[in-house]
Amino acid sequence: MTAAPIRLKAVLRQQHLQTHTGFCREYDKVARMIDPELVGTYPSRAQFHRWLSGELKGLPHPHHCRVLEKMCPGYSAAQLFEPDQPDASRSVVDPADDGGLFDVIEDRIDQPAAGAVEWGPEQPADIGRSYAGLSASAATGVSEGTQRLGQRLLKLKKVQRLSDRDISQFAHLAGHIIDLDTRIDIEISGDGAARVTYRYELLNMTDRPLVRLPRDLWFQYTSGELTIRPLIDSTRRVAIQRVHDTPNLAKFACQLSPAIKSGESAVIGYTCEGGRFEDALYWRQAIPRYTRHFTINLRHGDAGDLISCSAIEEHEDGSENSATEELIWDHEGDDVIITLTRDYLRPNQSVTLRWTVTREHA
Predict the structure, then answer these.
(1) In this predicted structure, what is the pLDDT of residue 362?
(2) C-beta of residue 260 within 8 angstroms of C-beta of residue 321
(3) How far apart are CA 196 and CA 228, in angstroms?
(4) pLDDT tens-digit profile of 66-106?
(5) What whole-number distance in Å separates Cα of residue 290 and Cα of residue 295?
(6) Number of CB atoms found within 10 A of residue 244's CB
(7) Which parts of the chain register pLDDT below 50?
(8) Quick one: 137 exposed, middle or buried, by C-beta within 10 A (0-12, 13-18, 19+)?
(9) Full DSSP string of 162-212
(10) What is the pLDDT of residue 92?
(11) What is the pTM of this model?
(12) What pLDDT score was predicted for residue 132?
């Protein structure tokens, strides 16, 4: 379960100081008034994000407490590190609204956020939230690489008609590779032979070009070595580098040319043949990256009637929840067609689809 946000985070939002860069500037101003020797003693990015995530046990060093109490009049240090009790009358302000897109990226690019990052659909309390900070006007005092990444992100917003909320969340994931869309098409013929196609739309939110994407595929049953080929409609040239093969497992990498530069998005994919579905009818997909949209399209040929189908979403801590409400199924002749969709998946999650038909392959 996600920890309740601490009061310090809410107070800094109200003061427009929730980015590390902005916080440090104000910290030094206040520290100079207390004791000039405290100037420059502000927390590191890692420490700052620990404070805001609620991971800190106890209170920070006494000199931090002195400065924080001066920065946040009316609160003791102990109160600032208590869980915040939301006030229904308080206006909601998004972290990216006031800090600015570029400041957020600058803060996260070298030390990507993990765990506590906001990643999910809009909630009722978020309706009407302003994202006015998402503009190029905030690009002062940040590196050239950050400005380039931010400009490309704003261009992507226009081209793909993304919402301000999406762009805000992408900015907070600076330092990560994001899957804007993952689609898996599974076609099973009447004799159980399978063809699986992966299609990824990737967004590079790191400061390095993406040239290689490690992958693996496993089947319980195969008809020999798994054959893996690049997807023809990829927007980058893809070469399959085989790393390790066993009768049931293939570890490989997609080598990309040209590289996906910082702030760029691209579609890549591959197909796999040689796997079989016999007595075990399920597909489990591990999620390696933050994934905005996820889809499994299954066509089971000559399957007869669908007896049952279910889907489970597993979380990093081992907990599970049903994803069956996102299942759509139908028949087309003797073929069974199933579609499963999920949104806002996180790294180290997995999604499992199971189904039973009247004519299983044995």
Answers:
(1) 53
(2) no
(3) 9
(4) 999 888 887 888 888 888 765 433 333 344 343 467 878 88
(5) 14
(6) 9
(7) 1-2, 87-99, 132-133, 136, 138
(8) exposed
(9) --HHHHHHHHHTTTSEEEEEEEEEEEE-TTSEEEEEEEEEEEE-SSS-EEE
(10) 35
(11) 0.73
(12) 41
Only one residue has tokens 């929730």, namely 18
Q: Which residues contact 172 (CB under 8 A, 6 or more apart)?
A: 95, 96, 104, 108, 113, 117, 118
For residue 284 the two structure tokens come to 């489990």
Amino acid at 36: P
Per-residue exposure over 208-226, b if at least 16 CB sit within 10 Å of its own CB, e if not: eebeebebebebebbeeeb
Q: Give, in order, the Cα–Cα distances in Å from 231 to each of 110, 236, 239, 245, 286.
A: 32, 10, 10, 20, 20
Q: Is 141 exposed, middle or buried (0-12, 13-18, 19+ CB in 10 A)?
A: exposed
Write down the pLDDT at residue 179. 98
Q: Using CA atoms, how far apart are residues 350 and 211, in angstroms rounded to an integer?
A: 25
Chain position carrying tokens 């690009």: 139
Its CATH architecture, for the domain 178-357, is Sandwich (2.60)
Residues 6+ apart with CB under 8 A from 312: 320, 321, 322, 323, 351, 352, 354
The bridge status of strand 221-230 relative to strand 306-314 is unpaired
Tokens of 26: 């104000």
Asked if 256 contacts 316 with a C-beta cutoff of 8 angstroms, the reply is no
Alpha carbons 4 and 168: distance in angstroms, whole number? 21
HSE-CB at 318 with a 13 A cutoff on CA atoms is: 0
pLDDT of residue 138: 46
The DSSP output letter for 6 is B
Token pair in block for residue 351 = 């999604």
Each domain of the chain, given as residue ranges in start order, spans: 1-90, 97-175, 178-357
pLDDT tens readout for residues 306-315? 999 999 999 9
Of 168, 17, 146, 20, which is closest to residue 94 (Cα–Cα)?
168
Residue 140: per-residue pLDDT: 55
How many Cβ atoms sit within 10 Å of the Cβ of residue 93? 17
Place of tokens 């869980």: 83
Specify the DSSP element, H or E, that contains 121. none
